[in-house]
Design brief:
alpha/beta; TIM Barrel; 9 helices
């Protein structure tokens, strides 16, 4: 059984998330895949950020003060303006800080570009892959580029770096995944899913189609997550770990899908991997 150890947002338990310091630490501890989140500036630069808006838990303004609320959308800032913000530590007064007490701050850190991540990774002698998540939502389309543009920029970056064989593109918003497959069939895509009472990207509300699946659920009310992922052309199904069961895993393997659940980081969840129920892991 293959075991894919992914550094989630680099290695945010050790260094500020989605920063070069975090990815350097991930490589140091031996991850096999660098997992990063993508955003796009107003002048079309791919950068690494989990949130479409500047996150007040991890962002200081140019005067050194913590943002008091969500900042502007990254897609509304030029790359030069984005570099004025410091993302080198977690606000100690935030709840988020309590989740990562061992994170080492790196004051003065700026949000890096995807190109910088590739340069860092390729300078390492350790073998690894890149798992890039397009962070966009069909519910807040004014905060990000359209799916086609987002997918095109990610594909162009992978091709420019000559990394298409070691890059996967993943998303909860499958519109970018379908666009990426049209533009670059050679790049593998990963269908992210989550089904909880609070939120699901697989089921629409009030009998409507899910806005996240690019219409793939039309007429498929009984379709399972692996079947929908297969229909989307994904090579990997990446579900919330609680949504995995033996039947879904068996079906996925029958369809030829890899299964990489998120986020497997505690002893109990790791035991699920050892037992064979899960087949992947991300490190926090």
């Amino acid at each position: 059984m293959a075991f894919d150890l992914q550094g989630h947002r680099g290695a945010r338990g050790h260094a500020p998330e989605n920063t070069l310091a975090s990815f350097a630490r991930a490589l140091q501890i031996g991850v096999t895949t660098l997992e990063a989140d993508l955003a796009v500036t107003s002048d079309g630069v791919l950068v690494l950020s989990h949130d479409p808006r500047l996150n007040p838990d991890i962002t200081r303004s140019p005067d050194g003060s913590w943002l008091k609320a969500e900042g502007p959308a990254i897609n509304h800032l030029s790359y030069a303006n984005l570099q004025r913000y410091d993302v080198g530590r977690i606000d100690p007064a935030s709840r988020y800080a309590s989740l990562f007490p061992d994170q080492t701050p790196v004051d003065g850190t700026r949000i890096p570009t995807l190109k910088q991540l590739f340069e860092l990774g390729e300078a390492s002698s350790k073998p690894h892959r890149y798992n890039l998540e397009t962070k966009l939502s069909p519910l807040t389309q004014d905060l990000t580029p359209d799916p086609e543009t987002f997918a095109r920029l990610a594909v162009e970056a992978a091709r420019s770096a000559k990394l298409t064989e070691r890059v996967t593109i993943q998303s909860f918003d499958w519109r970018t995944l379908l666009a990426a497959k049209r533009i670059a069939p050679e790049i593998s895509t990963v269908c992210l899913t989550m089904e909880t009472p609070a939120w699901s990207n697989l089921r629409g509300t009030a009998g409507q189609l899910s806005p996240w699946l690019a219409g793939l659920d039309a007429g498929r009310t009984d379709a399972t997550a692996p079947e929908l992922a297969y229909a989307a052309g994904c090579s990997t199904w990446s579900p919330f770990w609680r949504n995995v069961n033996a039947a879904a895993l068996t079906l996925s393997h029958r369809l030829g899908l890899k299964v990489v659940p998120w986020t497997v980081k505690g002893p109990r969840r790791t035991e699920w991997v050892r037992s064979g129920l899960l087949s992947g892991r991300r490190a926090a």
